[in-house]
Amino acid sequence: MKTIKRSIGTVALVATMILTVSCKDANKNEAPSSASNEVMQEKMDSSKDMAMSDTQEAMAEAILKDYFNLKDALVGDDNDKAKMLGGTLAKSLGNLDKSTYSESQQKELTDIIEDATEHAEHISESDIKHQREHFKILSKDITDMVAITGTATKLYEQFCPMYDGGTAWLSTKEEVRNPYYGSQMLKCGKVQREIN
What we know:
This protein has helices at residues 2-29, 34-75, 79-94, 103-123, 128-149; strands at 155-160, 167-171, 190-195. A 3-stranded antiparallel beta sheet has the order 2-1-3. It is 66% helix and 9% strand. Helix 2 (34-75) packs antiparallel against helix 5 and helix 3 (79-94) runs antiparallel to helix 4. By secondary structure, the protein is mostly helical.
C-alpha cells in the first residue's frame, strides 16, 4: 500500500512539473501584451527620430563643409575653384530636410536656404570681387542656419572691420584667414565669438 501511495505521489509530482513547464512555454509563445507593443513602438519611433535627426545633422554638416571649402577658395584668391564650390554649395543647400523642425523654424529655414542658394549660384558665375560680395550675405545666411540647426563642430565667427563697413564669416579655426581680401590682407580680422 505504501508503494502505491508513493507511486501515486510521484506521478502527481511529475504531472504537476509537466503542467508547470508547459504553462511557462505557452506564455513564451503568447503574443506580447498591448503595453509591451506600445513600448516596442516607442522604441522604434525613438530610433526613427534619432536616425532622422542624424540625417538632418549630416545634411547641415555637409552644407557647412561646402561653405568652408568655398571660404578657403576665396582666402586663396582662387576664382575658378570658388565658382565650382559655389555650385556645390547650392546643391547641398537644396538637400536640407526641414520636416522635423517646428513650423516657424521651417519657414525661417526656407527663407534662409532660398537666399543662400541664390548667393551660392551667383558665386558660381562671378569674378572674385563679385564672389566676395555675395559671400558676405551667404555667410550671414549660414550663420542664421546654424542658429537653428546647430552643429557638432566648434565654429568661430570672425569679423573684418575693413570690408564693406564690417563683415563676418564662419571658420573652423581660430586663426584668422580673411576670405574678403585673401592675400592682400590675409590676417585682417578678429574672432568675434565662438559657436558651440
